[in-house]
Amino acid sequence: MRYIRYACIALFAIALISVALANRAIVTLQVLPQEISNWFAVNPSVQLPLFIVILGSIIVGLLVGFVWEWIREHGHRAELARQARERRRLEREVIRLKEEKHEGKDEVLALLDEAG
User: Fold this and answer.
1) Using only C-alpha atoms, what is the Rg of the chain?
2) Which residues contact 30 (CB under 8 A, 6 or more apart)?
3) Spatial contact of 30 and 45, defined as CB atoms under 8 Å apart
4) For labelling, which of 24, 32, 44, 99 has a CA lying 20 to 30 Å from the CA of 9?
5) 10-43: per-residue pLDDT in tens?
6) Helix, strand, or coil (residue 30)
7) Torsion over CA of 66, 69, 75 and 78, rounded to 10 degrees?
8) What is the structure's pLDDT at 108?
9) Is pLDDT of 51 > 80?
10) pLDDT for 75-113, tens place per residue?
């Protein structure tokens, strides 16, 4: 199974390297559209190789997706935490009730009571 994972990682790396080599041309990346940048008298632009723009877009998309999913699952995590707290409270209560039941009894009889 480990070798299959390594093979998939190697294929993915080869694909990324081939995309990077095929898209080495320099492109101008403008932060704002021309019409809006004229309003503010700024024209922020950067010249980058195309593969950096492509891979950067993929990374930003993944990060946005991870954050979106983390926010979406907040309700599930909160419910699981609430259930875990309730379970711990009930376990403590069961232990307390068992101790009250066997209070004043001989230890051996209490152990036999619990087992049977």
Assistant:
1) 31
2) 37, 43, 44, 45
3) yes
4) 24
5) 999 999 899 888 988 999 988 888 888 778 777 7
6) strand
7) -20
8) 67
9) yes
10) 999 999 999 999 999 999 998 988 887 677 777 677 777
Cα separation, 72 vs 64, whole angstroms: 12
Q: Residue 82 and residue 80: Cα distance in Å, rounded?
A: 5
Q: Position of tokens 């008298």? A: 41
Pairwise CA distance, residues 57 & 65, whole Å = 12
What tokens does 50 get? Answer: 């195309």
Confidence tier at 45 by pLDDT (50, 70, 90): confident
> What's 46's DSSP letter?
E
Bridge partners (DSSP) listed for residue 46: 29
Give the tokens for residue 52. Answer: 């950096």
Q: Kindly give the residue spans of alpha helices, DSSP state H, lying in 1-116.
A: 2-22, 34-40, 50-72, 74-101, 107-115
Question: Residue 43, Cα to own-chain centre: how many angstroms?
Answer: 36
Task: List, as one string, the DSSP characters of 6-18.
Answer: HHHHHHHHHHHHH
